[in-house]
Request: fold
Amino acid sequence: MMALGSAIGAGFFVGTGVAVAEAGPAVLISYILAALIVVAVMYSLAELAAAIPSSGSFSTYAEAGIGRWAGFTSGWLYWVMLIMVLGLEMTGAAQIFTHWFPGVAQWVVTLVIVIVLGGINLLAAGHFGAVEAGLAALKVLAIIAFLAIGLFMLIGFIPGRTQGLHEAFVGNGGFAPAGISGIAVGLLAIITSFGGLEIVTIAAAEADDARRAMSKAIRSVIWRILVFYVGSVTLLICLLPWNSVEMSKRPFAAVLEMAHFPGVGVIMDIIVFTALVSAFSANIYASSRIAYSLASRGMGPRWLLGSKVEEATHTDEETIEVAALHGDIEHGRTPRNAVAVSVVLSLISVALNWLLPAVILQILLNAVGMVLLIVWIMIVIAQIRLHPSLEAQGALSLRVPGWPWVPRLSLLGLFALIVLMLFNASGRAQLLAMGSLTLLLVCIYFVGEKLRERKAA
Reply:
């Protein structure tokens, strides 16, 4: 439920229509290509998480498989992204709430959200899991209801459909009205919408039976996500003209209005509000665990560990099994200092969202969008390098299908995405922002290592 809740954020309900408007019906090709890449990457991550459950997740695996600098860079990149996203999610939720109750100040709503969800995250992981499962369930039920309504409209059980299948897929400019470039733009917009699945591997270390839980969760969640995304976008194309205003602005609400559902606007606001609150809670969890793991491995401030300070380093691939024991949350224990930092910084992030000029904010958001590509590339490289030693140890309870070609092809696909971004103005801006942030973190790591060596000497 955590993986479903994180991957189905507010962007799913808003961004899906934007991708369709960019590429037309050919956006289905974009979704299929994106899905193939994401499934391959997630299987690579799941193989590592099932073999080495760790709260540091991909950061731990990047350290063991690529180098300590990679673990540091990927971990803090992801943490920075989550902090930025926390502010955006709170701002969006507060704006919806004040639309319902205009007399309530936006900062009051933000503060209440932080206090309630921050407090839940300070409790034991089991309490957080119960709340997150409930919030995610509301989103999942909403999507299942939409798929059912859309299907009934498609086959004629519910009246309101305004176009035939031929018109939907071939009319209005053809199947691919924007050509290859439209498919590419759609692909770039879609690929990051699958972000959030990584959080399930962060949580794996706190499960009762991590290996079994990881193997079961990743297999089912990946395919459910694909059904939700690809199924929803197919129905949207069938029921709404791809170039209509409704498709780019409010596609799900428009379909429900066609089915003559009362109170559509309020229903969609409630769903998006729930999506934002759920994603905020899950990202508080993920950011605190990543920060705790980095600190426990000597890559972050030691006070993030709280009263129990332990530091471990491991760069030898032969000691992967030992590495799994370090940087993890003691069962039943919550990293309160790390949670508190995420909560405080999320409030600062909200303030920045209100205060920063639009241009600076857009640059930061562009950096956020590219983090996933960097992290996913490191995941696949780490899996390719660690797979032989894990197999020799007999540690693989879940394997990537089609080894060794599937991971290599997914890596090629990720690099192809970066090349595609060079031919798009927005993509180039993202590459510049992300490249600068990545380079800054790499420099911070090596400067820190030099200072540590001098101190030791």
Q: What stands out?
A: The CA atoms of residues 61 and 388 lie 14 Å apart.
